Amino acid sequence: MKPRPQTADPQVQESDPIKLERELLALRCQRGERAAWEQLVATFERPLYYYCRRMLRSEEEA
Known about the structure:
Elements: H1 17-30, H2 34-56
């Protein structure tokens, strides 16, 4: 396998596959795909809950 050539512009970075997957998931949600919504919730439910709990300092409010 050949190595990828370097770009002349240091601002151009290789795409992050996880970011691309999440963007695609969001687009599928916008199109109304229920399976995409369920996957989005499964992916972010726990981290979002813990974030809210830390910010609110209350498990009940989170």
